């Protein structure tokens, strides 16, 4: 079996490909373009720009925006929602690294023979 490529076969397979316009992204999320702009102002997501300067969002960014909307809809202030999402992401990354470190075999050079 050939090694699996880590690169998506097409841009449509790529979660980071900026496929959605601001209007389409807002429609998909059931929100307004102003909400998406606010997420950018709070630096939660930074959309890429088309050659014409229009914001373009990826599926990954839309998932983050959807999480922010859930928190805001539940009564969390937008700034706090953005901070919560950043902290959740940092926690997930720390847990992943911690798990990798636990799975590494112990370094035998640390042990001494008595």
Structure, explained:
This protein is mostly helical and 114 residues long. It has one domain (14-104): Multidrug-efflux Transporter Regulator, Chain: A, Domain 2. 51% of the residues lie in helices and 6% in strands. It has four helices and three strands. It has helices spanning 22-29, 33-41, 59-73, 78-103; strands at residues 20-21, 48-49, 55-57. Strands 1-3-2 form a three-stranded antiparallel beta sheet. β2 (48-49) and β3 form a beta hairpin. The protein is flat. The protein starts with 19 loop residues before the first strand and ends in an 11-residue tail after the last helix. Residues 1-5 have low confidence and may be disordered. It comes from Streptomyces thinghirensis. Residues 19-87 form the HTH merR-type domain. This is MerR family transcriptional regulator. Pfam families: MerR_1.
Largest sheet: 3 strands, antiparallel
How many alpha or pi helices?
4
Strand content: 5-15%
- Helix and strand content put the structural class at mainly alpha
Q: How many β-strands, per DSSP?
A: 3
What Rg, in angstroms, do the CA atoms define?
Answer: 20 Å
Q: Can you give the helix content as a percent range?
A: 40-55%
What is the CATH architecture descriptor? Answer: Orthogonal Bundle
Overall morphology = flat
At the fold tier of CATH, the topology name is Multidrug-efflux Transporter Regulator, Chain: A, Domain 2
Low-confidence stretches: 1-5
CATH level 1 name:
Mainly Alpha
Strand order of the largest sheet: 1-3-2
Order of helices and strands: EHHEEHH
């Amino acid at each position: 079996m050939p090694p699996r490529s880590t690169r998506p076969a097409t841009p449509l397979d790529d979660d980071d490909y900026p496929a959605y316009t601001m209007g389409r992204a807002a429609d998909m999320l059931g929100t307004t373009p102003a909400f998406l702009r606010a997420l950018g102002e709070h630096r939660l997501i930074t959309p890429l720009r088309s050659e014409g300067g229009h914001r373009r969002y990826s599926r990954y960014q839309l998932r983050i925006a959807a999480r922010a909307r859930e928190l805001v809809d539940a009564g969390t202030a937008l700034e706090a929602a953005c901070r919560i999402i950043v902290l959740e992401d940092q926690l997930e990354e720390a847990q992943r690294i911690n798990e990798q470190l636990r799975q590494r075999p112990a370094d035998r050079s640390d042990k001494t023979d008595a």
